[in-house]
What we know:
About 0% of the residues lie in helices and about 30% in strands. The chain contains no helices and 3 strands. The mean pLDDT is about 80. It comes from Paenibacillus chungangensis.
Amino acid sequence: MTTKSNDSKLDVIPTKIWKCKNSECKAWIREEFTTGEQLCPICRGPMHRSMRHLPAVKNKVPRQPRQPKNDAF
């Protein structure tokens, strides 16, 4: 049995998602990762907006600062 301390819990935030309307399909996707069409990626059925409490994700890797060029000849 695994026990988790309160320190190891992830901070969750209310997140907008798109959820499949088909009751037999459990697919959902975060709104920031959706494309223009709102079709379920699994069953190709229609989707509707909803909310879930999910851990925050970083969409992009932070850029590293450029090193100055050495123009020594």
